[in-house]
Amino acid sequence: MEAAQKTSDDKPVFSEYDYSNFYYGAGDDPLNLLRPYADWYRESRPAGYYLYMEALETAPTTRVRVKDGKTGEVRDLLNLASYNYLGISYRPEVKKAAHDAIDHYGLGASGSPILSGTFDVHEQFQKELAAFKDKEAVVLFPTGYSANVGFISALMRSGDTIFLDQYSHASIVDGAILAKSKTVFFRHNNPLDLERKLTGVKGKKLVVVEGVYSMDGDICVLPEILEIAKRHGARILIDEAHSTFLFGPNGRGVAEHFGVDKEVDFHLGTFSKSLGGQGGFVAGSKELCDYVIAFARSRFFSCNLSPVLTAGLLAGLRIAQNEPQLRAKLWSNCAFLRRRFAEEGVDIGKSNSQVMPVMVNNDSRVLQVAEKIQQRGLFLNPVTYPAVPKHKSRLRISVSAAHTEQELEMAVQTIAGVLREEGVCRA
Amino acid sequence: MPGITRYGYRDAISGFFEFPTENARRVLPRGFEPVEVHHGTSILAVTVFDFNESEVGEYGEVVYAVIVPPLVRDTRLPKSAFFPWQVATTTKAAREHAIGRWHLPHWMDDVKVDFIREKGKTTAKVEADGAPALELVVTDHSWQPVSHLYQSFQKDDSGTYLANILFEGDKSEHEEEAGKIVLHENAFNKDIQISEVFDTPFRELWMRNGCQLFDPLAQIEGK
Fold first, then answer.
1. What ipTM does the predicted assembly reach?
2. Residues of chain A found within 8 Å of residue B35, distances taken between Cβ atoms
């Protein structure tokens, strides 16, 4: 029998393949990969991939009711997966604002923000957000993804060079691709490698970093990177998706935390993380924002944020501003969890934020570990390639100010217990 | 089996290393695209063989390849597809055989390949032009017999070709990469931007006591 001949037993075996095997395929038909992928996924889903896209039946508070992706059983779980870092999305003030807005505006914006989709509530939110960020202006985007894609491709062109941290979010990478600029990756959070890559490069240069890296939870070494970028004549963009409303004396983000807020050229952020809503923004000078409004196609050609959502976000922004105790509680929770994980020998990598990866480092076993943890009462997502590098699989914890220490202690004991049973951390 | 070419090996070790897509594109001919691990980063596959059975006797071989998309038709799904752009062997007979039958581009002098087998790891040291060219280290984990399908593409003045290869034997592949590659400044590596190759593999593979079974070379495009 020839090597490539297909037999009835030749279905892709779950453990021998991963998503990456089904992304590329030469041949004559764009549908060629559908059948092999379907065969593989049919086997992979019950083996652990069912843990993705499990449906929640309740608000993303610290306890959630989740429909088990394999059995269909609905279970009450301790929620360590939702962003909602300040526990704002289900606050009564936020829900009331959204209720009032739907009564007033109806469901959606029904138009692009540059045509008929801008409402008074958008303008009010932009005004208060700009004041919060201490910037002249703000531009809203329908998602954080579209903010990065739209902003980067609005600013950079073919022939320019964009320097990206190797762990950059997909939206940043896709923005660079869409800009058609030359993309140069520097090693994660490594100013020396950035300097090496910047040296000798001519023309327009943009360095993109993230305040908190979303999969590792480590904070950008911003002052060092900023100094190098400036010395080489590069502009710098910081994506504060996971750090806006959390870091700095006023909660403006990591740039404020390091006292370099004014030196960073471009500030981006999202509303899906700390506010538990949806949307993204660019903050900066009025000139910058006017340019972005004109040239960010991901915004220009999308429907605006729903006024219902925007009203809720506005209420959430006011809570985040007026209740700094929420941030204090979040950092207290993080300190507790970090200390307890260290005591239990659980590896959380280099996290120094509210994003804590529990490192498993094994792409197939991470699903078994996650399954066991869920069976013991925690809602916690496994993260594998391509979201993280191959063999750097992990479970990602999102700590919230709403968690109690008792809940976090239960989480530590459950996770450490399973990892010990699986031989992932020391006994 | 008619038409099948068999190569038996004691050891075949391989590492997949991230390197810049622009480097991958430089070594690929027009019409081939590298698989990207992420935007701007492709895969350099380095494989060293210790063949103990072939039509041309025993020999050592080192293969530099770029991982490319497999050709997916109504066949088994390949584990990976390779575009070898430089092959080197320890004997002239092996080189002439591979050029004649598989259209593989070769380093045209004999190279020296030494396998250093230690408990839990194997190192292949390759010398070209009498100087070190590379060292590839892989470590072991658990062994199990496998039969995997791979594809190898080739393109030259006569056309574009595909070889389907069954790789059989005991396999060790694990996820705690402890292997590495050292690429020396040597004309052998002239096509590789050495400083940009990640020296730790994201995939390391060790096969032993097995064979490669090649289907007849298929021409998939004309000149």
1. 0.74
2. 20, 23-24
